[in-house]
Amino acid sequence: MKSIAEVLASIPIKADRFPHLADLSTDAMLLRRLEIAEQIKRLEDERKEIDAELAGTYSDAELRFGVQFGGGWILKQCQRTSWIYDQQTRDAIRAIQQEAQRRGSAIQQTTAYLQASCMRRKELSR
User: Fold this and answer.
1) In this structure, are residues 77 and 63 in contact, taking their beta carbons and an 8 Å threshold?
2) Which 3 state secondary structure label does DSSP give 38?
């Protein structure tokens, strides 16, 4: 039987994927986060443009069944359905939710996330 120390020693230590972050101040880290967020927005816009080009190049049938590319890649059109309800239905759903919250049959789930915003923009908009 192995000791706890032997078991812990046998667990591989994952390499730090972002060692450069250790060298950044908190201000520099926030600026890096903002830079990355902007890059993600630009990349998402580029991906949407590429999707529009590909959707215009291939037929719905081709995309539904999948278009094969080199390297084993397949481009396929997927669908997700969402529903938009009329005001009366939304009000009824909200009433059911509020009643469940009052009765205690609904469980509150809170998720924490970080959001960065520029105070100067708020000051300028006043």
Assistant:
1) yes
2) helix
Phi, psi of 67, rounded to the nearest 5 degrees? -110, 125
- Of 119 and 59, the structure prediction assigns the larger pLDDT to 59
Three-state SS string across the chain, please? CCCHHHHHHHCCCCCCCCHHHHHCCHHHHHHHHHHHHHHHHHHHHHHHHHHHHHHHHCCHHHHHHCEECHHHCEECCCCCCCCCCCHHHHHHHHHHHHHHHHHCCCCCCCCCCCCCCCHHHHHHHC
pTM of the model as a whole:
0.62
Please state, in angstroms and rounded to a whole number, the distance separating the CA atoms of residues 69 and 64. Answer: 15
Name 75's bridge partners: 67
Distance CA 32, CA 39 (A): 10
Within 10 angstroms of residue 43's Cβ, the number of other Cβ atoms is 10
Residue range 19-30: mean pLDDT, rounded = 93
